């Protein structure tokens, strides 16, 4: 049963209309007639003490009554004036159950707003596979595996998993589906040049156009061999997924070849210094010397394990963002950023990890290469690593916040924009960023082990985006060439028979 947030109690349902406008007499009232038939005395006279009430039989506890009792016994969670004001609700808001026959967006009383636990999900795509396909078995395996992943994502959305209760399966589910999703998006837009890369585990492979896979070695080879132009990258560093827009000038091996990178994290570090985190990420990239790097933290993600889908969505936004081209050109000219940034220097890294001598640990020993223990250690970064942007709104437009889960984060982002830009439409419907967020807002009730008690009011837009990506991957897998389906099948590694046991729990 969907729960709701409302600023006033809904009006009570009036009883059936009587043909006689006058009220019935006391003798005709049903309660009076029942007392007379049972020989029960009437109501006591004024001033007479009331008799002790005997406990009567309890009503049967139905599922609906149990749910209502549980709801009534909940503490008043939305009576904090400051929090309610930030959410745009009246301070006297109360939690009520929305009648099942009422549309979730329909107000039952003035000022009421009902928030469902889930949003409508489009039906799964129905695809037909050719019987004469030489790779029919592999294609069927990929399509069925993606269909299973899609069904699981839709199921978890319908169950209303809160950000704290989001299962670990999502992180691994998204990783399994990424090769097929990236292949589908590149086929849909050949100019996208989307790459899915890993920079931590050499044999952890993803499938992209013209590349068998990525690991630490493949990542550096890609930077050296990437053709000129812009590339969009989803980067998995084993702890987090990030989006990058890469601009390359010069052919591979050409003197003067250079590049510029805008690096986007879909979340803001909550418990650590963001500049220190930026230094660690910048050092982890191992960019060629002289390639400028700009780091931006986008306050979109609040859930625990959806960073890969957030990063993928932001990478797609880069393709339509012409302002990044001007930012790359400015970085390559060596001009300072036109907004507030913090210089990220290698000196910010922990002394226990790096000493002043490149390639040496603090105890004087040489660091072994992550690619081959037998090779000399990779020199540790020194000097200026990047520029960290203080305010995301200075660099990225509202489109990057379309799937942001927190309304407070959306409002904080908008406060960093010029006033005239806060109300610009972000989609074909003409919705502003706040309008779109509110249209995707749901109420979630986290479990007892969650960091915060419920209800949590958040946007479920990223959950629908995950399902939309899977739908594209299913349609692409059903019709792509054999050369495309084989590496996808290999990367998914027989997902149809293994994912339930490994990733459901």
Automatic annotation (TrEMBL):
Pro residues: compositionally biased ranges: 41-58
Biased composition (Low complexity): 358-377
GO terms, molecular function: acyltransferase activity
Ranges of biased composition (kind: Polar residues): 1-12
Catalytic reaction(s) noted: L-threonyl-[protein] + acetyl-CoA = O-acetyl-L-threonyl-[protein] + CoA; L-seryl-[protein] + acetyl-CoA = O-acetyl-L-seryl-[protein] + CoA
InterPro entries: YopJ-like (IPR005083)
Superkingdom, taxonomy of origin: Bacteria
Region feature (Disordered): 1-59, 357-381
Keyword entries, A-Z: Acyltransferase, Transferase
UniProt family annotation: Belongs to the acetyltransferase YopJ family.
Listed name of the protein: Peptidase C55
Native organism: Paracidovorax avenae (strain ATCC 19860 / DSM 7227 / CCUG 15838 / JCM 20985 / LMG 2117 / NCPPB 1011)
């Amino acid at each position: 049963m969907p729960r709701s947030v409302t600023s006033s109690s809904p009006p009570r349902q009036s009883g059936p209309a009587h043909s006689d406008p006058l009220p019935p007499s006391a003798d005709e009232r049903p309660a009076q007639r029942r007392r007379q038939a049972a020989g029960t005395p009437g109501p006591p006279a004024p001033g007479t003490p009331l008799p002790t009430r005997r406990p009567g039989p309890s009503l049967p506890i139905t599922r609906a009554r149990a749910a209502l009792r549980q709801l009534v016994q909940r503490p008043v969670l939305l009576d904090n004036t400051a929090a309610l004001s930030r959410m745009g609700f009246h301070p006297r808001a109360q939690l009520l159950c929305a009648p099942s026959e009422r549309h979730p967006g329909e107000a039952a009383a003035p000022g009421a707003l009902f928030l469902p636990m889930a949003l409508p999900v489009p039906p799964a795509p129905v695809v037909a596979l050719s019987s004469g396909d030489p790779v029919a078995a592999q294609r069927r395996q990929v399509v069925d595996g993606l269909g299973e992943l899609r069904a699981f994502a839709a199921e978890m959305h319908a169950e209303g998993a809160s950000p704290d209760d989001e299962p670990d399966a999502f992180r691994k589910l998204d990783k399994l589906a990424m090769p097929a999703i990236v292949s589908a998006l590149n086929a849909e837009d050949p100019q996208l040049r989307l790459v899915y890369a890993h920079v931590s585990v050499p044999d952890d492979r993803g499938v992209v156009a013209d590349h068998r896979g990525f690991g630490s070695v493949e990542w550096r080879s890609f930077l050296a061999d990437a053709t000129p132009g812009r590339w969009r990258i989803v980067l998995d560093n084993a702890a987090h997924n990030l989006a990058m827009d890469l601009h390359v000038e010069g052919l591979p091996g050409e003197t003067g070849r250079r590049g510029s990178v805008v690096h986007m994290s879909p979340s803001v570090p909550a418990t650590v210094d963001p500049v220190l985190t930026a230094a660690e990420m910048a050092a982890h990239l191992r960019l060629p010397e002289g390639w400028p790097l700009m780091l931006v933290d986008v306050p979109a993600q609040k859930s625990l394990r959806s960073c890969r889908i957030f990063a993928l969505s932001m990478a797609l936004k880069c393709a339509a963002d012409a302002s990044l081209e001007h930012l790359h050109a400015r970085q390559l000219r060596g001009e300072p950023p036109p907004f507030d940034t913090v210089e990220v220097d290698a000196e910010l890294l922990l002394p226990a990890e790096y000493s002043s001598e490149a390639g040496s640990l603090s105890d004087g020993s040489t660091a072994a290469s992550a690619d081959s223990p037998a090779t000399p250690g990779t020199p540790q970064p020194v000097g200026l690593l990047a520029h960290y942007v203080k305010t995301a709104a200075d660099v990225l437009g509202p489109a990057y916040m379309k799937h942001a889960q927190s309304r407070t984060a959306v409002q904080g982002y908008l406060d960093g924009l010029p006033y005239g830009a806060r109300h610009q439409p972000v989609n074909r419907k003409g919705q502003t960023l706040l309008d779109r967020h509110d249209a995707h807002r749901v109420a979630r009730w986290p479990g007892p082990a969650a960091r915060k008690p419920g209800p949590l009011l958040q946007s479920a837009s990223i959950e629908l985006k995950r399902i939309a990506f899977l739908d594209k991957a299913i349609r692409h897998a059903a019709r792509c060439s054999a050369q495309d389906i084989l590496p996808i099948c290999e990367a998914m590694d027989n997902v149809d028979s293994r994912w339930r046991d490994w990733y459901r729990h």
